[in-house]
Amino acid sequence: MRPRLRRAIAATAVVAAATLTVTGYTSSTPKATATSKPSGAITLWVGSWWSPKVPAIMTAWHKAHPEITLTINPTPINGYLDKFTASALGGSPPDIVDLDVSWISSAANQHLLQPLTDLAKTADVKDYAPGPWKASQYKGVQYGMPDRSSSIAVFYNKTLFDKAGLAYPRNDWTYSDMLTDARKLTVRGSYGIGYAADLSDPANAMTLISASIWGHGGDFLNKDQTKAVINSPQAVAGIAYWAELYTKYHVAPPGTPGFSTTRDVLPLFEANQVAMFAGGSNNFATLDALPKVKYGTVLMPGNHANDSGGYTMAVPVGAKNPAAAKVFIQWFQQPKNMATLMNRTPARLSSLAMAPWNAPEFDTFTKALKYSRPLPSVGSWTAMQTDIITDAQKVLVGNATPKQAADTMQSQMTALLAPKG
Asked: Model's pTM, two decimal places?
């Protein structure tokens, strides 16, 4: 089924008659003549993983809107946010920028993004994955239109489960079940679970710790996001579970405090040295390229709570052609366009019901969207996340207890929530 899935995704990438420029990909269509409708040129910044789809996007866009010239700049994720922030502060941003939803609150708090209230009013909100939609807001204002949804599930290595004589995990499993399995799977140089914990990979470092905190009944902030609650007994229990996989039960590999998912966890999973890890459906591309790796997916344990990540298209303050930018965003938001032009999980539920996203491989992640939750949407979240990961690492290396770390997190988050002035 995996090879067929890859062919299905690849089949959507129609080779385009687009002109390549040194800055990216651009249509060769001349600017439209004077008209009451938006025209001219727009530039879109996206992550580098968009590159295989750029030709297909250019072909479809040129056919639908020859009056608007489009340039797409696929950009490596390392330094992506810093590059955008510098361009916006310097007065030369792109017309559209595709941002991780966890960045929206910080960017909007810095007044780098234009409200997209007009687009939100005409959107079919119920057709969007709820996590990315809500995370695209800041203080109740819509600053992005989601194009990518990302739920989290557990990947398990069938080879290691088979060797241990264990049944594959089922969707009704608990965190206690996960730990029990991880202990039985930690034998002869193989470990039950792997996870990122390094600041160089903050999004993945938050993946398991956030799920564990939510799964044990805790949270980061209260409901109206005005008070830190990360040192509640439930949140401390979640932090303790996350840390003790490494510190007490030793079911996570040596070096975990410095691990990132792509650099460290995935290679160990591929080498049959890690039996489980939590991640998004984007990992299919890596794992499916390795035919000897046999794996399955299952919902997160317990209440299945997971980090609802994603990406969202925003129009920066200072964009040269915001009207035409909104035309592109609305066009891309059409369910069929999103289904055929995305190479990551679409944000619209109706797109997920279309090929290739309705293949059985994606079923777990589609189910996980129901239980996904956005990380806090406050202007200081990026700084809070850095503090949380930093203090959680101290627990892993024995420099703090889970309660001590949670109390420090609480103090730092409270200070960041305090009004400035």
From this structure: 0.81
